[in-house]
Write a structure and sequence with these properties.
There is one protein chain. The protein has 21 helices and 13 strands. The chain is α/β, with parallel strands linked by helices. It folds into two domains: about 210 residues, no CATH class; about 325 residues, Alkaline Phosphatase, subunit A, CATH 3.40.720.10. Strand 2 and strand 3 form a beta hairpin. Helix 1 packs across helix 2, helix 3 packs antiparallel against helix 4 and helix 15 runs parallel beside helix 18. The relative contact order is 0.13.
């Protein structure tokens, strides 16, 4: 009989692509195989392996110490900040040395992850301080990150915004992971050299306490520091203060000095007047006092005041301290209109969800004014219009603009004002008009900028195509402080010129214009220690309108004197209502 032998498949070769894949190793087996391969490599190349270990350890130490010593403001980001002894490093070393292996690994990973998260918050603090003049609020400010992405997209393009968002997400995810791995690496190194590490920790603790006791400094900063725990403590206090403030402000918003005043007793001295409240984006004290911007802006204000005087208008000007800085314009707008100090997003949500009387709503409550808003920066649903008391709101899509955007600004101020004239101010009407207008051409990054054109040439805005195309690019100025200041000054000059020329051209004996800045520009332009003051002016042809505010001691003209009165922006509503004959009827909380 023939012998039958079983068939055996030949072994798979690289030249046999159709051979089925062998079953993959389980994850644990695969990890063990990789570790074995690494150990074999270390055995074959001991010097290279030693270099890798030392480099990895050095990088881990640099990362952990750098995170512990990292300040939370750009102005403090100097080399001397990293030549100090962090108390947290000493305490962490002692804790890790006292634990057996598994608890030590867990603690090191937790400490490293927490340190990475704190580093992310410190970086957010840097950005918020640079742009908004305050630290990041972990309770309220997450929603502003989407606004930041939109700002980058409007200023630098969608691709830049997408890459920035991807980079930010990767950084938030990777940084805590890297600091955790670094802390584990250092923890294992300490355990491997326990005696020397213990002596070193004792010496470091002794030096730290001695430096604290004697106030020892190097390069102008204390040698001993607890900056990481201090930053964590500050974040915790910020959270607690925010939660307490939410409840306190809700009670404060219920009380209103003019909340129960009948419409017939509100602003009786302005009956028959067209009253226009206009905010100029980022128009702050720095525009009038910084040596780079002030000469051009000052000339523009002087020229405007002279032109308005020839047209029969007078003006008075003072200062208001804004509730916001560098951005978040809606906080300044709501503070000015409500008479409440609205300096964060929670306060804004609280006040706009209530029925607190705004200046704009006061005019509507009388029944003697039509109320409208011109909001070129609004590009989505804006339910706050009801709280402001505006009968009609014209957003970026309602004014017929067909021209180009100028960076963040959807249209030039000159076009927005001409559209207001065409759609509302120039129409025959049964009632006078109360309007709130937001001018956006002076919004950062101030490039490219529009230029004045003939008012009769504005049309649908296409006339601005060539101006935008030939303008300075945002990327050329956004990181250059001097160029940013120059462009910012030009943008304010343009906004003021547009408003003054509009008033010259279309103002009447019954026009009352109140215009002001909503906040100071960002730190790169206004400076590290700039105030939050913004100019405010009231312009009218009727002398009785200006006589009513004689007691305010404001400066004659469009430029307030440096020593002109400075009020909190939240005080303007009550002063204005009182000056023009309103009778207080408070509502109680």
């Amino acid at each position: 009989m023939p012998v039958i032998t079983p068939f055996r498949r030949p072994p798979r070769t690289a030249e046999d692509p159709d051979t089925p894949e062998a079953p993959s190793l389980p994850p644990l087996r695969a990890l063990q195989a990789r570790l074995a391969h690494w150990r074999a490599w270390r055995t074959r190349h001991p010097r290279a392996a030693l270099a890798v270990r030392r480099t990895t350890t050095a990088l881990a130490a640099v990362l952990v110490l750098g995170a512990l010593l990292l300040p939370n403001t750009l102005v403090a980001l100097e080399p001397n900040r990293f030549a100090r002894i962090p108390a947290e490093a000493v305490i962490g070393t002692v804790l890790l040395l006292c634990l057996p292996r598994v608890p030590r690994l867990v603690l090191a990973a937790l400490l490293g992850t927490g340190l990475g998260a704190l580093t992310v918050l410190n970086l957010l603090d840097m950005g918020f301080t640079q742009y908004l003049g305050r630290g990041f609020n972990v309770v309220l400010d997450w929603g502003l990150l989407d606004d930041a992405r939109s700002y980058v997209a409007d200023s630098m393009g969608g691709a830049a915004a997408a890459w920035a968002a991807v980079g930010a997400v990767l950084g938030v995810l990777l940084l805590p992971a890297l600091t955790a791995l670094a802390a584990v690496r250092l923890g294992e190194l300490l355990a491997a050299h326990r005696e020397r590490a213990a002596r070193g920790a004792l010496m470091a603790a002794t030096v730290w306490m001695t430096c604290v006791a004697l106030g020892v400094q190097t390069f102008g900063v204390p040698v001993a520091t607890r900056s990481a725990s201090g930053a964590l403590e500050a974040q915790a206090h910020r959270v607690v203060d925010t939660l307490r403030d939410e409840a306190a402000f809700a009670e404060e918003a219920k009380a209103d000095r003019f909340g129960a005043t009948p419409g017939a007793q509100l602003v009786p001295d302005l009956r028959g007047k067209d009253v226009i409240f206009t905010f100029i984006e980022s128009y702050g004290r720095s525009a009038l006092e910084d040596p780079v911007m002030a000469p051009g802006v000052g000339r523009t204000l002087d020229t405007g005041a002279e032109a308005l005087a020839e047209a029969g208008f007078g003006a008075r000007s003072g200062w208001l301290t804004s509730s916001t800085y560098g951005g978040s314009s809606w906080l300044g707008h709501s503070t000015f209109m409500s008479g409440l100090w609205v300096d964060n997003q929670q306060r804004y949500r609280t006040v706009t969800a209530g029925d607190h009387l705004t200046l704009t709503k006061a005019f509507g409550k009388t029944g003697d004014w039509d109320t409208v808003g011109v909001m070129p920066g609004v590009q989505k649903a804006w339910p706050e219009a009801e709280w402001y008391g505006l009968d009609k709101v014209y957003d970026a899509f309602d004014v017929g603009y067909e021209g180009p955007k100028f960076s963040w600004s959807t249209m030039p101020d000159q076009y927005a004002l001409e559209a207001f004239q065409r759609l509302e101010h120039g129409r025959e009407r049964d009632k006078p008009l109360m309007a709130e207008i937001i001018l956006t051409s002076s919004h950062q990054p101030w490039a490219p900028l529009p230029e004045m054109v003939g008012w009769d040439e504005i049309g649908d805005g296409s006339v601005f195509d060539g101006i935008e195309a030939s303008g300075v690019r945002a990327s050329d100025v956004i990181a250059d402080s001097t160029r940013s200041k120059e462009q910012y000054g030009k943008s304010v000059e343009y906004s003021i010129t547009s408003l003054v020329q509009w008033l010259e051209r279309y103002g009447t004996d019954d026009t009352v214009l109140v215009f002001l800045g909503d906040h100071q520009p960002i730190t790169r332009v206004s400076g590290d220690k700039a105030s939050r003051d913004v100019p405010v002016s009231i312009v009218a042809r009727d002398p009785e309108v200006l006589d009513a505010i004689d007691g305010w001691n404001w400066t004659e003209g469009l430029e307030p004197a440096r020593d002109a009165p400075v009020w909190r922006m939240s005080s303007f509503r009550d002063r204005f209502l009182t000056a023009y004959g309103s009778t207080p009827h408070p509502t109680e909380d």
